[in-house]
């Protein structure tokens, strides 16, 4: 009797019952993303275009490719390296539909410039899936394990859950069932932690498959039933049907035929409701196998003819669908069972014809399986012929070697002379390159020095001058100040001195940042502590300051760099609000789609994007009009891998947004 192996891993991992309504919903979500695209700043546009590309991939990869290329073009234009890497990833993702090699090419391009753990994790996971599709389990496992380590190190459970599932599938295909179970259970725990019911159902289905392959049938049924229960809760009819098919097949193996029929018939009802042709074909074949097995038993003798007729109908249903899907192995199995059913009915002519058809399909399967072997033999023969030709050429060369000895000697002398000339030329070229490098370094040092003195002139000289003026006033004309004015002056003097110290610390930090070996020291930083320090620093500012951190955000970054960036952004906002009625600065920390953000918003006069060009263009030197200058914010943000977006319009205020992947 032919035994059919369940294919629920692939079916449960990627449910293939998406209907037109789901597709319409996806397209509507894409339309909503595109409507707001023109209003976004450039970096946000890149992210939005890549999101559109991702959502188009299942329904129209060509359109997905179009939007990924638009994102790539914009990223290159604004020199947004992480945007370039993400765009390459989306191009590779869309290529993965029909071109594994192209997908790998673009994933590799993205890996060369990707910096954030989240993006590198996604890239490794994508490469692992491509190699899995190719059947290259060695490379698939390599990239999936790299992805899982990155996901765990960065505490990204949402990515880890899918990677663990992929690794489990690879181990299952390699028949390493203990390791497959290990990773399926890992994925299950992550799904439970994240509250992903659909993921739980997939895990239970795959765990059931492993137990079934190990011969642990009660455990397999238990896990299939868990998968079915969750599918019922979610209203996922197709997944529920596949779970019932798997349970029915196990009862068939246990020869509990009545139970098998109950589950498989229920599966067929649900599959027809979901229009899942794949499961209809599979369940019909298993139902036919069950009815055929029952027809051979004495206790069903009075129902033998009816059982055989129903089995024949089910095998024909399965075959009709499998022909459309070009599944040769399933068609062969169905014809083999049909031949046996007609033989038991006494219709030997029909049984013979169907037997011949099954042999025909079996031969087709053999030809498909051996095609690669034949090609290998042809390649081997071609290599042997080439080897013989090489040996013949070698003999010919040896016979002519003596005649050419004098020519070779002469050519040797010429090569030595040419080599000496080339060596001299290379030495001169290296000397020129070193001189050019030294000139470049000197030019850079001059630029840093110029920027340094510009900052000294504005950000240290001016506060010190004010401080000296306060002290002279106290010393030379104390009578001009009453007791209250004196206390107010003393308070302002102390505050100015403290702010001057902070400014000097910022300057020292920026100066050290220009040194080649100075790097930030990232750690887990509660944003609430940073906000408390900033609130104290700006306590004397004549504006309304509002700090919000409802999600208790924790960042992995350098605390001093972050404080300096925010202190300068808030300081710039305070200065911009001097002539504004009811001046307000709002500082918020929040997260969205796994990315943490801090925004600094004011209700000041606003401006244009050109005003803040120094935040993006390293060739633009702006330094003394906004505190320590936009160049300080730019350099420090770059050092900690923080992206800055600016949303500003005249008379509508300015919003700076820092994003931490």
Description:
The protein is an alpha+beta fold and 661 residues long. It is 72% helix and 7% strand. A five-stranded mixed β-sheet has the order 2-4-5-7-6, with helices on both faces. Strands 1-3 form a two-stranded antiparallel ribbon. α12 (217-234) packs antiparallel against α13, α17 packs antiparallel against α18 and α21 packs across α22 (559-576). It is flat and about 125 Å long. The two termini are 56 Å apart. 36% of the residues are buried. Residues 1-22, 369-381 and 622-627 have low confidence and may be disordered.
How large is the count of helical segments? 23
Strand percentage, roughly? 5-15%
Tell me, rounded to a whole number, the average pLDDT: 81
Helix content: over 70%
Order of strands across the main sheet? 2-4-5-7-6
Distance between the termini: 56 Å
User: Measured on Cα atoms, how large is the radius of gyration?
Assistant: 36 Å
Q: Structural class of the secondary structure composition?
A: alpha+beta
Major β-sheet profile: 5 strands, mixed
Q: Which H/E pattern describes the elements?
A: HHHHHHHHHHHHHHHHHHHHEHEEHEEHEE
Quantity of strands, as a count: 7
The best one-word shape is: flat
